[in-house]
Amino acid sequence: MAQAVLDDPGGVAWRSISELARSCGTSATSVVRFCRAIGLRGYPELRLALAGAVAHDDAAAVVAASSDIDPDDDPVTITKKIAYADAAAVTETASRLDVGILVKVVDALAGANRIDIYGVGASGLVAVDLQIKLQRIARPGYAWPDPHMAATSAALRGKGDVAVGLSHTGTTVDTIDALTEARAHGATTVAITNFPWSPITEVADFVLLTAARETAFRSGAMTSRIAQLTVVDCLFVTLAQRDLPHTMDALERTFAAAQAKRVRRSRHPKPLSRTVPG
To answer: From the CB of residue 163, how many other CB atoms can be counted at a distance below 10 Å?
Structure first.
């Protein structure tokens, strides 16, 4: 019985006395005797003690996982810290996202003649992801990760167009310049950034905020991209819902086209023949 408690204290804390006795092949009376032998008055007190210990350990684990990556961290610790940071980026971004602003942005996207998306570096990858999503539902979206192409694109935008700028710090000059140019010609501008008072917000009609924390070891890391991708997914799904018949038709057609590009395997594949050179 002592070994069962040591092996799974959290599990024992949730079990009834009969469940523990059954799993240990003993009786409820023996469980009570065990509790008294270790200085407790009974099984309820054991469960409370175990629950408290587990909660303390979990809290300690969360604190450890949420700390910065240290130079002497081993691979297991690094993995836990990265997983914690990435998961936190998603949940905190979702809680931070202003749904009212999100709906207004979707309104603009739904009525846009054209959607141009700007972002460089890691944010450029997210810009391309948004373009792919828009393409799947037949929306006119174009990503411009190259600063020169972004500038020429922005110069041709106008009323009825939407320009989306992605910048984690909100200080990326190329992305700010593109939004500034597009706005000057009448386009509606949207900024997706982590910092509400960053320069990019000054040239945006709408601002959608992410919640990702970068450190010295993780500058430009996955957390910022995951947070941005979370916002992009929220925009995409909300936009897709606006016209479900149109969306489903587009998704089915693009899915079929993509499926045609996959390797078809027969039930009984022929072995590859080997030819001897010469």
So the answer is: 30
Q: Two tokens at 27?
A: 């009786």
For residues 60 and 100, membership in a common domain is answered with no
In angstroms, rounded to a whole number, what is the distance separating the alpha carbons of residues 188 and 115?
A: 10
Mean pLDDT of 232-248: 92
Please say which residue of 65, 100, 115 terminates a domain: 65
Query: What is the tens place of the pLDDT at every residue in 97-138?
Result: 999 999 999 999 999 999 999 999 989 999 999 999 999 999
CATH code, domain with 53:
1.10.10.10
Q: Are residues 154 and 233 in the same domain?
A: yes
Q: Which pair of tokens denotes residue 49?
A: 């003690």
Phi/psi of residue 207, nearest 5 degrees: -125, 125
For residues 106 and 28, membership in a common domain is answered with no
How many CA within 13 A on the CB side of residue 10? 5
Give pTM, 2 decimals: 0.69
Q: What is the identity of the amino acid at 14? A: W
Which domain covers residue 19, as residue numbers? 2-65
Please tell me the distance from the alpha carbon of residue 212 to that of residue 190, in angstroms, as a whole number. Answer: 19
- 267 CA to centre of own chain: 38
